[in-house]
Fold Ribulose bisphosphate carboxylase large chain.
Amino acid sequence: YRLTYYTPDYQVKETDILAAFRMTPQPGVPPEECGAAVAAESSTGTWTTVWTDGLTSLDRYKGRCYDIEPVPGEENQYIAYVAYPLDLFEEGSVTNLFTSIVGNVFGFKA
């Protein structure tokens, strides 16, 4: 996930939906890989691969982990900042937004 979803040079857009996730990487997993996994699993990383993938731009719809900061005073805990393009979500659907961002990553292990 790291090569696709961890984008520290990404410039946040006014139209992005921003989320912050507190995470504890599994032993041996770098925080960047964990943050990228959160971005992937809460956006396009859960999409099933089909032949029509060539018709959809991953770059347009994917979540991007653009920053990671250690939690002060907490060992091996980090805050991952993820930007989601507005087009990823159904217009006016808070349920769709919460299902994608919150539902897919609770209990997730990276």
Notes: The beta strands are 17-23, 64-70, 78-84. The longest strand covers residues 17-23. The helical segments are 2-5, 31-41, 58-61, 94-103. Residues 24 and 75 are 9 Å apart (CA to CA).
